[in-house]
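Feature request, filed as a ticket because there's no other form

It would be nice if the structure record came with a short human-readable summary line next to the C-alpha cells. Right now we just get the raw output. Example of a typical job, pasted below so the devs can see what we mean:
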Amino acid sequence: METRTRSLTEGGILAAVMVVLAVVAVYVPLLGILAVLLWPLPAAILIVRHGLRWGVMSVIVAALLTAVLIEPTIGLRLAVAFGPVGLALGTGYRRGHSATRIVTTTMVVSIAAKFAGLAIVFSLTGMEPFSGQLNAMEESFGQASAIYQSLGMNEAQIAAARDTFMQNIAMVRLLLPLVVVTMGLLDTMANFWALGRLLSRLGQPVPPLPPFKEWRLPAAFLYIFGFSLLGMYWGSTRELTLLYQVSLNLNMGTTLAGLIEGASLYEFVTRRYGWPRLVTTLALFFIVFSSFLMPILVFTGLLDTVFDYRKRYWRESK
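Raw output as currently delivered:
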C-alpha cells in the first residue's frame, strides 16, 4: 500500500511538471524549445522508479490537462510526438539495456513518433507541417525588404537577396523530413543525458555510452550516400521531384553521419598521439566550418564506416 501511495504521489507530481513544461513550451520564447525537448523526461523517471504503467498514465494525464488548460491539439501532439520518447527511454533504463541499445531504440521510436505527430496535425488541420513558420519567414522578408530600401539598397540588390532567400526557403521545404529526423535525434540525446544525470544523483546505475573516439556507424551510410548522389542526378535531370527530395534528404543525412564518424576518427587520432586538447578542438571547429576541409572530413568518415581505419592502422591501441 505504501509503495502504491508513493508511486501515485510521484506520478501526480511528475505529471504536473509535464504540464508546466508544456505551458513554458507554448508561452516562453527560446526557453520553450528546451521545455518541449525535455517534456518526456518526467515520464522516463517515473518508469525507471515505478514501472511502465505509471509512465503511460503520467503521459495521458499530462496530455489531458494540457488539452484543457492550453489547447486540445497541443496536448495530443505532445503525447504522440514526445510521449513515446520517455516511454522508450525509461523502459530501456529499467530493463538494464546497454546505453547504445537504449539510444538506438529511443531514436527509432522518437523519429516514428515525430512523423506520427505531424500526420495528426495534417489530418486535423489540413495544413502541411511547418507551413506556418515558413510562410511567416517569407512574410518577414517582405518587411525586411522595406527596411533595406530605406537604407539605400537598390532594387537589383534587394531582388538578388530575395531570390537567394526564396531558394533557401525552397531548400528547407525539401529538407523537412531530415528536419524531423534531426529533431528525433536531438530530443533523444537531450533526454538520455538529462535522465542519466538525474539517476546518477539518485544513486542509480547509469549505463555509459562508449567514448566518442570509439563511435562507429554502420557501413550502410556510405552506400546510401552513393545512391543518394545518383538519385539526385536522376531526379534533377528527369524532373522526378519526389526522387530528388528523397535523395536530397538521404544525402544530407548521410553527410551528417559522415561528419560525426569523421570527427570521431579525428578524436581517436588526436588522443592517440596526445596532441593538445585546446589546439585540436579549435582545429576541428576550423575544419567543420571550412568549405574545403569539411567535405574531406565527411568523406573520410564515410569511408571509415567500411574500412575501419582505427583497426587497420592502430591495431595495438584497440
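Something like this underneath would help us a lot:
The radius of gyration is 23 Å.
The longest helix spans residues 241-272.
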